[in-house]
Amino acid sequence: MRSSSIVLGAAVALGLAACGSTPPPRPTAPPVPLVSTAKMAEANLSSASASLVSGRLALVPDAQGVHITGVIGGLQPLQTAAFHVHERGDCSAVDASSAGGHFNPGAQPHGRNSAGAHHAGDMDNLRADAQGRANVDVRLPAVTLGGGAATDIAGRALVVHANADDYRSQPAGNAGARIACGVIRVTR
User: Fold this and answer.
1) Residues forming beta bridges with residue 135, ordered by sequence position
2) Of 20, 64, 74, 120, which one's alpha carbon is 20 to 30 angstroms from that of 82?
3) How many helices (H) and strands (E) does the chain have?
4) C-alpha span between 140 and 52 (Å, rounded)
């Protein structure tokens, strides 16, 4: 009888231990890949806030997000200017305020594209040359081009600001007036 009591006690102890243990972690789903449906888009920037700034930019999706290239002119020689994707593709207001705030589908704080938490539309500052031209060659990660996903920047606006982005002031980096604005339009 004693051996059956020991066996029964051991079985009860094992059963209780099994009930008290945490279940093994479930595997997490892999992140949803960013999928762009457009092959290319462009943004023709027009002056805002009585500036002379304008430019033409091409946007092409790649494995990291969207690659933006082109030239912006009319800046002050050697000017450093903030550059962002804004939430609305509306540049109709004289000061481009119609473009709304920074594109921020993830509800993140404002910051620097190349480090730490930031809006999806935050990009590093542009730097003009001695003739007031800025050559743009920017990769914007974690966004898509076309398809209508929350990360889609097609139909939104690219905005150049008068001042450099300080990357910390909320919600827009103390970037100053909007001096150029262009709607991102899918071309193919």
Assistant:
1) 71
2) 64
3) 1, 9
4) 26
pLDDT tens digits, 144-167: 998 888 889 999 999 999 999 887
């450099």: which residue's tokens? 164
Decide: 108 and 151 in contact? Cβ < 8 Å: no
Backbone φ and ψ of 139, nearest 5°: -105, 125
Residue 103 contacts residue 88 (beta carbons within 8 Å): no
What is d(CA 115, CA 118) in angstroms, rounded to the nearest whole number?
Answer: 8
Asked whether 180 and 160 are in contact (CB, 8 A), the reply is yes
β strands within the chain, DSSP E:
41-47, 54-62, 65-73, 80-81, 83-86, 126-127, 134-141, 157-161, 178-186
Residue 167: which of 128, 115, 126 has the closest Cα? 115
Q: Are 96 and 181 in contact (CB under 8 A)?
A: yes
Residue 18 has pLDDT above 50, yes or no: no
Cα distances from 61 to residues 11, 54, 78, in angstroms, run 60, 23, 29
Q: What is the pTM of this model?
A: 0.79
Rounded distance between C-alpha atoms, residue 58 and residue 118, angstroms: 23
Domain residue ranges of the chain, discontinuous segments joined by +:
41-186
Q: Which CATH class is domain 41-186?
A: mainly beta
Residue reference for tokens 């590093």: 124
Q: What is the CA radius of gyration of the chain?
A: 25
pLDDT, residue 7, reads: 45
